[in-house]
Amino acid sequence: MSQKQEKIVKNQAMNQSTRAEIPIFLSARVPRSPTSKPMLARVAESMYWMSRYMERAEHVARITQVNFNMLMDLGEIAHSMQEKQWQAVLHILRLDQSPEAQALFASPDRNLGQHLTEFKTLNLLNKNSLLNCLTKARENARSIRESISAEMWETLNTLYWSLLSDDAKQRLEESPQQIFQSVIMGSMLFQGVSDQTLPHGQGWQFIQLAKYLERVDMTCRVIDTLFDVLRSNEATMEGPLKNIQWMAVLRCCSSIEAFRRRHVGDLDPQRLAAFLILDKESPRSIRYCIRAAQKAVAGIATAVHPQEIDPAERILGRLNSQLEYAETREFTGVGLKYVLKQILDNTAESASAIQRSYFLH
Predict the structure, then answer these.
(1) Closest to 119 in 3D by CA, of 102, 136, 135
(2) How many domains, the chain?
């Protein structure tokens, strides 16, 4: 081989070596790589519904507690107004068409609040009673004991049996606030224990996804329903009484202190609605929850189908972008109802997409 041929061969070898050393980040697109194997559909679905029912129980307890306290603060108000407030609570919880609930309103017994409180707490005929929500959460947790931590199971099991104790009905009659508060704190404890004891993999992501989707759904219903009720009562309510009712909306969403830190002065309905929908820092605002749910779906999709965009992630991503650029003036009158309906429809669509992608196998 001549010197010229040897030089050509050496140059080719050097070029090949150089090309082999080009870093991968210079390529046009790098698909996401899976971090772990996909979960069993049965386990993923149980994780999801366990979390949704725990979050739902917390909202049922808080909304009932807030309405109970508000009616006490308002004092002797017309019976028709009390009925309207309790009807609103039932509507938020999707129970206004329940035959059992309607029978309570038709009853001549005037102690409506006590009967409705028992109906929403211990009545097994009520699909969204506290006892039913905790029962369903516990059933899902029991089916995946090997996939959750012992602390998670103990927290949920203790809360469940506290409502099945022999003296539960007596405690509810004597101190309903204690029952509601125990469920609220029990749900928060369960979520905190999950964060601290469960690996932040797919199972934890399904728990986060379910929690935030349920929170968005309930918050939208609280705003939509209570705004209608309060606006219909504005003409007959004085300033202090009106403020009590608007504060109740914030308390139903566990946002009274967060709102007060951001806004000082009278409670303006438009400002209140904008805070509950658009605030990017409050963990109870709709925008925050949508973004957190989108992040959870993205984490799940990375493990299951890393080279594709998840349908639910796409829906939540579009909704998050719309909320990011929304304006406060959109939340007046019919505009508020349209925005809330759009959020509810998109959330329901994303939940259906999650079911098709991960559970129906």
Answers:
(1) 102
(2) 2
